[in-house]
Amino acid sequence: MARGDLYPRPVEGTWTEHYPDLGTSHVSFQDSISPEFYRREQDAIFRQAWLNVGRVDDLPKKGSFFTKDIVAARTSVIVTRDGDDTIHAFHNVCRHRGNKLVWDTTPTEETHGFARQFVCKYHGWRYGMDGACTYVHQEDEFFDVDRSLLGLAEVACEVFAGFIFVCLAKEPKQSLREFLGPMVGALEGYPFDRMTERYSFRAENNSNWKVFIDAFQEYYHVPPLHTYQLGPNNRDPNLTFEGAHYQLDGPHRVVSTTGVQKHKWPPETMYPSEVLLRSGNMGPWDAHDLAREISGVNPGGVDRWGIDNFQIFPNLEVLIYERNWYLSYRFWPTSHNTHVFEADLWFTPAKTARERLAREYAAITVKEYALQDCGTLDGTQLGLESEAFEDYPLNDQEILVRHFHKSVGDWVDDHRRALGDETMAPPPVTG
Ligand code: FES
Ligand SMILES: [Fe+2]
């Protein structure tokens, strides 16, 4: 069976019509401006779904740890690698009187490092990397104290392809693998572990978290917003950018594109720095093509495949590039109209100075384009908050936007029903 036959593709008609549950009507973005809806997302999504908090690369040896503040879930977690090489996650809260346990210069900042134990800064209780309480200061002052019952509160933690996920539900409804489903699960064999050279950036943005995710799940905006990316050759059918495959699986989505194959353009149409460094927003030109034949990659069997953009519900995006690198974005809400954006680019380690420069150049190029995307955020949030319109038309290339907002609405609604909360219908998502 050809890879493209594994999943339905529209032989005729539109992508959106191919998923009839989505409809084609206008979409309300009330879910991106309502403080009440955000409060519901916090409980229904950020305290229920599996959330990617890091990679195994963040825990390089026994005793490694990092903290992750998940504001939307009203908690911070500590993720550790214990002496048996087991990865754990705990609420970052001392069992004695609730002090935030692990922080460095200020409790509002995340930290990471290596430790044999954690010591609470308040009364000195200690915990091992497996969460067990190992020391209670002046223990005999307590009443019938049993340290074995006073460990940290464990958080469900599972690893998929080196991505560490936590789930803050007391009892996750699904295992991580069930949650990720077959489309994302098929990426298990991708050699993420070989891509260890990392470039990171972070931004605090003035928009709802979904508004920025929306900016990365359609390419309709590319010609007007990233004009230079398309350049003068965008009429050549072998060089044009194409949104070639869209696929939905549960709450997750992927769009595969050709990317912009600028390395095939005439040199005079490029920046001199691109020609000199042989790199750009598709990555280093000379990287060997590692990804194309790996299971799960290019699920639509696109011939001129360049990038898979996997949108993993709720807030992780993994872009797998033809030229041997990948990019992850995470979007962490901090209120109904603010969020933190984290981007990481991962390459195989450079072996020469030229390879290193090509990676650095890819990183700054991606950052440049992300800044262009980011530049629309305040304006979109302000516009939506004006409530000038009740709903908005979405085209076929915006199918993933339509699906994302429907998935968010479904999760919020399902959670409300599960609680038997009929006091407030959720804001309409699809108009
Ligand atoms: S709150 Fe941590 S030891 Fe008291
Ligand atoms: Fe963009």
Task: Please give a structural write-up.
The protein has helices at residues 35-46, 176-185, 209-215, 222-225, 227-230, 272-277, 353-374, 377-385, 399-418; strands at residues 50-55, 64-70, 75-81, 87-91, 112-114, 117-119, 126-128, 133-135, 154-160, 163-167, 197-205, 243-249, 252-257, 307-312, 316-321, 325-335, 338-347. The chain has 431 residues and is α+β, with helices and mostly antiparallel strands. The strands form three sheets. Strands 1-10-9-4-3-2-5 form a seven-stranded antiparallel beta sheet. A seven-stranded antiparallel beta sheet has the order 11-17-16-15-14-13-12. Helix 1 crosses helix 9 (399-418). The radius of gyration is 23 Å and the shape is globular. Bound molecules: FE2/S2 (inorganic) cluster (FES) and fe (ii) ion.
Question: What descriptive keywords fit this protein?
Answer:
seven-stranded antiparallel sheet, disordered N terminus, binds fe (ii) ion, 17 strands
Kindly summarize this structure in a few lines.
With 431 residues, this protein is α+β, with helices and mostly antiparallel strands.
Side-by-side strand order of the widest sheet = 1-10-9-4-3-2-5
Mean pLDDT: 91
Distance between the termini: 39 Å
Question: Helical stretch count?
Answer: 9
User: Would you tell me the structural class of the helices and strands?
Assistant: alpha+beta
Label the overall shape.
globular
Percent in helix: 10-25%
What summary fits the major beta sheet? Answer: 7 strands, antiparallel
Computed Rg: 23 Å
Name the poorly predicted regions.
1-8
Assembly of the depicted chains: single chain
Which cofactors or ions or other ligands sit in this model? FE2/S2 (inorganic) cluster, fe (ii) ion
The tally of beta strands, per DSSP, is 17
The H-and-E topology, N to C, reads as HEEEEEEEEEEHEHHHEEHEEEEHHH
Beta-strand proportion: 15-25%
